[in-house]
Design goal:
This protein is an alpha/beta fold and 365 residues long. The protein has twelve helices and 14 strands.
């Protein structure tokens, strides 16, 4: 018997999963057998389909958290004479810049306020003034605030100026419709334990085949060499270079099936949007305001301003809600005291209603 979870994870990942996704991990697999490696190939093909990449795109799975895949893309893409422009308005844009900096890569960072969209005019001016820039990188959903960054104008600029465009879609891919070809995203990065609703263990990259093949020999990291990982999976029909996270892979295949059963990305997006709508509406009725305006909020996670009350304590709120069966996230906004509530994963409108009832019951400020 699979035990029930003691609480619902209202976080941007790891997140609450279905019983059937968890049950898919209840057997062992041999990574030399074709019956396992065929599962990997099915996953790779389905990811390309979800990205709408067609034959021009391929997918690579990479052990570790999503950050490992971000770093793998940077090691693989950047040559000694490359220069990366990172467009940042939160912690995960800063993380991309930090990785590039520690690699010793050519780097320029455009920092925008946490509560503001990146300005395409500023980006284009930077491209005009710095022709050495070869790559643009940004985050789609910045879970620091829940900001859904408008990546399309930036991707258009990358195409116009013939730059390689890298999109960290860690917490949005599979939950928000997009097309990697229009406008072109050269490298899209995501993770098993986000909107596909799998469990932690690997990340993945959707890549333009020609771009990826052109990166052979770039990486100074052996384990994070994306081209080498891709060539091994292509040549050996799903084989990983190093130990494969077999249980996570099998759970992810089940999660992909459940995405299809729900009606695909569009249907999941509608559920997430409804979760978000109910949450913001209900919290505002309780006197708790969202940090971002509605036009900028993602259906992934919402940052809320802490109530302006002398007796408010996030730790107390956290523990009281956990005792009611809900786990939320602390704030990450530097300019304002906030806390965050996610609405992705195996979470439905009725769960959000129950959360709001719990907040009303335990309200102590």
């Amino acid at each position: 018997m699979i035990p029930e979870n003691p609480y619902l994870l209202l976080t941007p990942g790891p997140l609450s999963t279905s019983r059937t996704v968890r049950a898919a991990m209840n057997r062992d697999w041999c990574t030399w057998d074709s019956d396992y490696n065929s599962l990997v190939q099915k996953i790779r093909a389905r990811l390309v389909e979800l990205s709408q990449g067609g034959t021009a795109y391929t997918s690579v799975l990479m052990q570790g958290s999503g950050t490992f895949s971000v770093e793998a893309v940077l090691w693989t893409c950047l040559k000694p004479d490359s220069s990366l422009l990172v467009i940042s308005n939160g912690a995960y844009g800063k993380r991309m810049a930090q990785i590039a900096s520690q690699m010793g890569a050519g780097l320029r960072v455009l920092n925008f306020p946490e509560g503001s969209q990146p300005d395409p005019k500023v980006v284009e001016k930077t491209l005009q003034e710095h022709p050495e820039i070869s790559h643009l990188g940004m985050v789609h959903c910045e879970t620091t605030t829940g900001m859904l960054n408008r990546y399309i104008p930036i991707a258009d600029l990358a195409s116009k100026w013939e730059k390689v465009f890298i999109l960290d879609a860690m917490s949005s891919f599979g939950g928000i419709p997009l097309d990697v070809r229009s406008p072109k995203i050269d490298f899209l990065i995501s993770s098993a334990n986000k909107c596909i609703q799998g469990v932690p263990g690997f990340g993945f990259v959707l890549a333009d085949r020609t771009r990826l093949q052109g990166c052979e020999g770039n990486s100074k990291s052996h384990s994070l060499d994306l081209v080498d990982q891709w060539k091994t999976m292509e040549t050996n029909q799903g084989k990983w270079r190093f130990t494969s996270p077999t249980h996570t892979v099998r759970a992810f295949l089940q999660a992909l099936s459940e995405l299809d059963e729900e009606g695909g990305v569009e249907a999941r997006y509608r559920r997430y949007c409804e979760n978000h709508r109910l949450l913001v509406q209900g919290m505002e009725a309780l006197g708790i305001q969202a940090f971002l305006p509605p036009t900028d909020q993602s259906p992934i996670i919402t940052a809320f301003r802490e109530p302006d009350a002398p007796n408010f304590s996030f730790e107390k709120l956290y523990n009281l809600l956990k005792s009611e069966g809900f786990v939320i996230y602390p704030g990450k906004v530097s300019q304002a005291p906030t806390f965050r509530i996610g609405h992705i994963g195996h979470v439905f409108p009725e769960d959000i209603r129950q959360l709001l009832n719990a907040v009303e019951r335990i309200k102590f400020w």
